[in-house]
Amino acid sequence: MSKRTSRRTSLGQWGRDLGLGIRLAVGGSRISGTSIVRLIMGTVGIGLAVAILFGAASVGNMLSAHEQRNAANIPSWQPRPGVDPLLMSTASSTIGDERISVSWIHPSGPNAPLPPGVERLPGKGEMVVSPRLAEMRAAADGEALRQRFPQREIGQIDKYQMTDAGDLLAYVGVDATIGAESSAMPVYGFGRPEMSGNETAILLTLLSIVGGIVLLVPVLIFVATSTRIAGAERDRRLSAMRLVGADARQVRRITAGESLVSSVAGLALGTGLFLVLRPLLDNVRLFDTTILARDLQPSPLLALITVVGVPLLAIGTALFGMRRVVIEPLSVVRKSKPVKRRLAWRLVVVGLGVASLLSAPVFDEGEEMWTFAVGVGATLLLIGVPALLPWLVERGAARVSGGRPSVQLAIRRLQVDSGTPARVVAGVAVVLAGGIALQTGLAAAEADDKYRPARAAQETISGQVTGAVADQVVADARAVPGVTDVRAGRYLSVKGAGEKSGTSVYVMDCAGIAQRYQTDQCVDGDAFTVVPPPGSRNYGRDLRPGEQVRVVKYARDKEEQIATWTWPQPKSTLAQPPGSRSGYFGPVATPGAVRGIPLSEVSATLEIAHDKRPGVISALQAATAKYEWRASFYDPSSYVSKDERMYTTLRNALLAGAVFTLSLAGLSLLVLALEQVRERRRAIAALFASGVPRGVLSRSLVWQLAVPMALGVVVAIATGIGLAWLFLRLVDEPVAVDWPGVGVLSGAAVILVLLSALAALPALRSATRLDALRTE
Amino acid sequence: MTTGTTGEPIMSARAVRKSFGPTQALDGADLDLHPGQVVAVMGPSGSGKSTLLHCMAGIILPDDGSVTYQGRELSTMDDSARSALRRNEFGFVFQFGQLVPELTCVENVALPLRLAGMGRKPAEAKATDQLARLEVDDVAEKRPGDVSGGQGQRVAVARSLVTTPKVIFADEPTGALDSLNGERVMRLLVDAAKATSASVVLVTHEPRVAAYSDYEVVVRDGKTRAAVGAA
Amino acid sequence: MCTVLGMSIGHALLGLLEKEPRHGYDLKRSYDERFGKDRPLHYGQVYSTLSRLLRNGLIEELGVESGGGPDRKRYTITDAGVTDVEQWLGTPEKPDLYLQNTLYTKVVLALLSGRDAADVLDTQRAAHLRAMRELTERKRSGDLADQLICDHALFHLEADLRWLELTAARLDDLAGKVRP
């Protein structure tokens, strides 16, 4: 229409046209089955998108709530007037392969502060535990835990005040002797101002952005596809509107009104979904973080953007979909020769993504900019894939011209309209690419010898014991069934004259030294110097023979001298045996060489070898429960398990996401196939009447879906492996492609194609019936 | 019973009955199709003309009565045999919408040959010839959506003729065209059929289209009424 | 045209007489009712036609009622007359312009006499189509002038045929009207 008309279009006219569209969408009894299907599918798609967006909009709030609670739990050692400090020593150890944090506490007076979520301070022999620990202790298989924590449980920590509701936490009351313990700090209160820029928070935010994109892309594609259902019917309706005098702009506004209906309904559905699903997510643990339903509050701004943006987006999609359609009063013209797709901007997106990932090493690993570069790079790559696919499918289809009739039919169909199937497949490709990247990354991480051999070698349990009880604990530990050997070592902190930081001397008996450094020369009273393996840096310093040093211990940030000592002439220089990754290098002394130093004041580390029977560590912990804070054990391999646990979580999340998006994509493909059959009912019926076997028609349907899908899978595999390669390059890991995983994901795509084709076959079959040929 | 025809019919329908649910579409229809002749099947809308054509072509099977082609009873053939018959011996022209929209015109015409196993190059060469005979070789590389209705119908006629069928079934082939284009399509169709001695079953309700036939059969209320009282 | 009309009056009267013997006056009335809405017959026309039919032996006088005069005579159809009607109905009219009057008369008389009116129409259609085929053939081999002339004729014939179709579709209604 003329510019004059458009300028005169008032807001009121807009409103009336939108309203007309709304009435047409829900209008009365004339509405057909397919229109309803379209309305429902649009609503469901937008509903899902809204629910996902609300979830994503809540991540920030969830993280900041987490952060606030974390800050509230940080003990303060600043003396406060009128407060009797709470003496507290916190030790981390493990239960199974989970981390547990045990705080041994003793109030130094009646006015001692209460830790967050604790109602009453436990006295000697009492404790307050986190809900999950209480649950585990109470469980039928919790006998070892009950022995390890024989204290009386006088209450539970309020989960809403813990940093993470799923943490394993215990406050155990002990007597005043803990005051002598160097690790026991006087706590005057809890909570300190929030820290900002937490790295995990940034990473999680980035993850949720990438995850959100991966989830949202198929949803949006699904919404766009759903507008194609009953498209011909809608076109006829709009054509009729033109006939009675609506101008081209009005028709567009009416279309917008129609799509507004499903977006508003979707908005309601999505809000409902979010509210219904939120309680179900309560206490769900993800990435070692427990989700609390009440933390899932969308940020008001983001929620507003969602509420306003989603309908606008839906309208925009509808109008965008009509950009090549000209509705005339008596007909609908689809411009059959669409503009050729341009490659440039698609390549720019992919190129920027790759560049961003390549640039990441410029920054230090873990630095904010590094995280940013990686996140942006991954996001751009994941967006670039679907952007690239329509172009690829178009070009790919243009190249092919031959093939059997069934192939030819499918290829020609793609040449006419490759955009829609390519977009649907692009959704699948994003998921596949992300999936393959993660699978490959995980495979590389698992294959890395850093983890597996280390775990195999370290069939030992580590322990930390206060000096006074070290000998008793060693004796008790030796009595535990399954324990084959217990070795104790102590790090002495020594300082030369006027030296500020000083260095360490490792004290260990000859048996230990012989075993550790593979030497048979050790006699009690000897001292050695261990040189670091090539490439390792010695953080301490070597002592000069005859050097006078002060032996110190630290208590509550105060340095306390416990002895003076002279470093003897080392007997020899020992080398770290090749292949051992962790170790100590520097001065090493036997107990005979440190006579006169009160070792009972220096805590000891234990290395406990065992015969790998299950539950050894639990038995150890139970057997040494009476030492309270004085002895703690942990399984070094459990930290690896923790990584693995995260991988498992990741894999599960990946699988769930993949299943979700694949089924959405499958539905989209089905819709597409059905719509294509509907559109060419007459041609199909005529072909069948002329003797074209149904098989040829069915196969062409399969090809039509399979060709873009095949391209999508190829692109996804390339992108996924490329992404993984770029990631792994950042962390110096070798690339090991998880081919079975790639195979499974690709196979799923193939099955998807076959399933949607299969589901569309009845429609094809009915199209070959002759109703379509009847003109009477 | 018919005029100007001699010899054995290539195809015969006898006492054909067919009902769709409660509707009796054909209630005793007879038709003889003579080699190289064009028979017009006339009658008002809903009289069963198209149903008679579908029965004759073996697209559907009659409930009762017989349809024989070169002495073979169609109802004794299975679906794939009838499909093969339609593919190899028959050609079809419908009112509209029969061309595959995404194939070019020449590809549409070549399609039956390709299905019969012919290679792409020779099939398209033959299709181009056929298009030329129907005076539409200029749109060979266009898609059906980009050509006019008359051109599209001529492409459809070309497709029906490309396998040199023995019988061409044309169901209101000019129904969607104006007089001039309709006449042109009919002229080319009949000329091409005569050139290859193909018989044509022409379903139409337009007398001027029927005038291209050699003889006519009228269907009314599902019954055929043969022309009587030759002059 | 005139002859056609004249001939068809004779056949029409014969057809009317086939059902039952009538007076000349009755014949005129029934003819006017059914066929002569726009152009009623003159008595002179009726009696001259009747006398021609008498002369040709297609009808005969059934007897004169008291009072005499031509209008008091009753006529009845002879066997020859029935055969003549039969032949007339079975013969298609030469496809020509403006023959609806005749065709209509034939259809009504066929209905009146209990014959198959559809046969009349089918016969006519065949004749029309034959004519159209000839014209089509001429058109295909002729020059543009021939084509245009033939097309003119073809369109007129087509109009007739459409009327035939329409009439065929309404035969039952018509039968109800002419045979109360």
Automatic annotation (TrEMBL), chain A:
Keywords: Cell membrane, Membrane, Transmembrane, Transmembrane helix. InterPro entries: ABC3_permease_C, Membrane_comp_ABC_pdt. It comes from the Bacteria. This is FtsX-like permease family protein. The keyword Transport does not apply. It is found in: Cell membrane. The lineage of its organism: Bacteria, Bacillati, Actinomycetota, Actinomycetes, Pseudonocardiales. GO terms for cellular component: plasma membrane. The chain crosses the membrane at residues 39-59, 201-224, 259-281, 301-322, 343-363, 369-393, 422-445, 653-674, 701-727, 739-764. It is a multi-pass membrane protein. It comes from Herbihabitans rhizosphaerae. Residues 212-322, 658-766 form the ABC3 transporter permease C-terminal domain.
UniProtKB/TrEMBL annotation, chain B:
Keywords: ATP-binding, Nucleotide-binding, Transport. It comes from the Bacteria. Signal peptide: none annotated. Gene3D superfamilies: P-loop containing nucleotide triphosphate hydrolases. The keyword ATP-binding applies. One of its GO terms (cellular component) is plasma membrane. Residues 11-231 form the ABC transporter domain. GO terms for molecular function: ATP binding; ATP hydrolysis activity; transmembrane transporter activity. InterPro entries: AAA+_ATPase (IPR003593), ABC_transporter-like_ATP-bd (IPR003439), ABC_transpr_LolD-like (IPR015854), MacB-like_ATP-bd (IPR017911), P-loop_NTPase (IPR027417). The keyword ATP-binding applies. Pfam families: ABC_tran (PF00005). PANTHER family: ABC TRANSPORTER RELATED (PTHR24220:SF685), IMPORT ATP-BINDING PROTEIN (PTHR24220). This is Putative ABC transport system ATP-binding protein. It comes from Herbihabitans rhizosphaerae.
From TrEMBL, chain C:
Gene3D superfamilies: Winged helix-like DNA-binding domain superfamily/Winged helix DNA-binding domain. Residues 13-84 form the Transcription regulator PadR N-terminal domain. InterPro entries: Tscrpt_reg_PadR_N, WH-like_DNA-bd_sf, WH_DNA-bd_sf. This is PadR family transcriptional regulator.
